[in-house]
Design a protein that fits this description.
The protein is of the alpha/beta class and 242 residues long. It is globular.
Length: 242
């Protein structure tokens, strides 16, 4: 969950403290993770050696865990939220100890800009890019393309807005899911924050439209850009660098 712009931290309070409840409002999250892991394993199959991978906005380490599960990858995770990284360090203590994982506290764009071109064979992210302003996201995508190795894999599990009524239905579905999970637990303030968070995601300078995202990645020079999984607004996108 990297910050949308340097200084902007959309998960610094109650949302990060009770992030597990967000997962309860997504009973399909296991399917999302299965698709991400399958994409990574398909990419690494038949390769030799330890491949460098990056998780942008690693949060508490959900996507990082999938990358590490492959066995072929040495993973760097970056995030700018200290509380989330503390959870990740606890969750992934064994991998940190054996040297397969490095965790970095930094702004995502600043971090990527410090790396040479073609540095990572796999770049992954989970529910980060949709949080970003359009301008910051474009600059981050430029850097993702630059540091991704030739033939490398980009995989992103995220909220990709569809056009028209399909998106409105998806938004209603997710807001209802928050009510279903949080009201019985009397998490009224958390419910308010998540609903407002989703409203803010709809802003013209932030909403991540599927068609626009695919077109921009194509324009950057990525190939085979496609949505390989969708459940309402949640989707998994994969792409390869020429």
């Amino acid at each position: 969950m990297a910050a949308p712009d340097p200084g902007e931290r959309r998960f610094s309070g109650r949302l990060s403290d009770e992030y597990d409840l967000w997962r309860l409002a997504r009973p399909f999250i296991g399917e999302v993770h299965e698709v991400v892991l399958a994409a990574v394993r398909s990419f690494t199959e038949g390769r030799e050696g330890r491949l460098p991978a990056l998780d942008i906005g690693m949060g508490d380490g959900a996507i990082t865990s999938l990358l590490l599960a492959d066995g072929m990858l040495a993973v760097t995770g970056v995030d700018n939220e200290p509380k989330m990284l503390e959870r990740a360090r606890e969750r992934l203590a064994a991998q940190l100890a054996d040297g397969r994982l490095e965790i970095v506290l930094d702004d995502a764009l600043q971090f990527l800009a410090s790396w040479p071109s073609n540095s990572f064979d796999v770049i992954a992210s989970g529910y980060v890019l949709h949080n970003l302003t359009t301008d910051y996201r474009a600059r981050l995508e430029d850097e993702i393309h630059r540091v991704l190795a030739p033939s490398g894999l980009f995989v992103n599990a995220d909220k990709y807005a569809q056009a028209g009524e399909a998106h409105h239905q998806a938004l209603r579905y997710q807001v209802n899911s928050f009510f279903d999970v949080l009201l019985p637990r009397e998490k009224y303030e958390l419910l308010r924050e998540w609903v407002l968070h989703y409203v803010e995601d709809e802003a013209p300078d932030r909403v991540m439209l599927e068609a626009d995202a695919i077109e921009r990645l194509h324009d950057l020079g990525l190939a085979d850009v496609e949505i390989v999984f969708r459940h309402y607004m949640d989707a998994v996108l994969t792409a390869r660098k020429h």
